[in-house]
Fold:
Amino acid sequence: MENCSMKRGFFFLRPCDHPARRQCTLCGKPFCDEHLRIRPGKNEPACLDCLGKELQKPNRGSDYEDDLFDPGWSYGYRRSFYSGSHYRPWYIGQANADTSFDGHEVRVFDSESADDFDDDPNAEADGFDS
Amino acid sequence: MKLFSALRKYFALTSAQRQFISKGIWACNQPPAAIINFLKPLAAFDSDLDKGRDQLMKIGCGGLILSFVVAIMVGNEVIPESSAGIAMFMVLTLGLGSFIARWLLGSMDMHNNLRMFVVPLLNTLQQDMAPGKNMIFKLDLRGKTCKSKMISQKHDNPGWFRYPKLSTYNFKDYWFSCIAPLVDGSTLKITVDDKIRQRKKTYSSRSGKTKFKTKIKIKSKISASLAMKNKTYDLEKTGSLTNLCDRLKVKDKNRRKAVGMTVYQISTSEDSLMEPAVCLNLVGKILMNAAPAKAKGA
Structure:
């Protein structure tokens, strides 16, 4: 079964490893249940990326405020964040030649340093002033 | 009507959520999804409550205008005297009742930073949190000028019926903080602290009238720190971040380097809103400055 096409994350993008369930009616790609929602006003599934794009449209008027606490908001907002702040997200996962995100360049960790991500059990206590 | 929607949402809240509305303070160490699930219904309720209170204000104004119209109609004998009392009672009840209901609901109103800053920010940070890890979270929306937050006060009082009288109150409001382990092994800490100076002035105008004026100045300190692993990141060029913030703090440890950036914002209203983008930009700048650590032996 095909995996979900969504790239999770905001500062760190990584592929979603859940199996895809249905296709997004807007972009046509397959997504898992976590990354699909029913489009408001239409009985069709759409991925959070496509919904996020719709939420970011400036002419949404007073509805916009309620969208701020919708999960789709951060998926839509990351695009404008990357463009506005020139942020290049880190990519965690198997990198290949076309590893990019919607035209935004990504940065890739060395496979060796990526293996070290989870080796520190006391990460929370480390580094900050007490 | 949004008011009914707000009431419906209020009655669907858990007792802990209702307690947050009345107390305004909450701290926890929970997975981000649990924190968001706790705050989202509150944000939705607050959004509807604000809209409902706006509607009540309009209804109240409409009721008062209508009472004038009814009074004129009664004066002109358009409405018979027998039903004039009932008509006046109804429009006045509508007008005054709306104002009273609006005022009573004010005690349930939370600062809009909850839905405009906290929930969107947590929504975004949740995307990058290490799976299965908890977030240490603290939120205090009791109000920036509540008595327990006062750190000093000064009164300049020249005496009875002598003006100007000036009272200055200083407050410190540590209202938002979160510590989150990220998916790359770094630990992120975001804090927002406000320093508030409130000035109350009583003075007499040229015409001899006694007037009161209250001014408030809020200096918000927004800090984002990332404790990043030396194994993962090369953070040699942190100095270039100095120009991108008001204050840069770098702390070196054996296994991690903590980079903290701080910016200050000034506002003149207690209702001023914080933008999630301010915090996200700081984190983005720290991460943009980091390069991947060189492979061993390279």
Notes: Chain B touches chain A through 52 residues (CB under 8 Å). Helices of chain B lie at 2-11, 15-23, 32-75, 81-105, 113-126, 276-289.
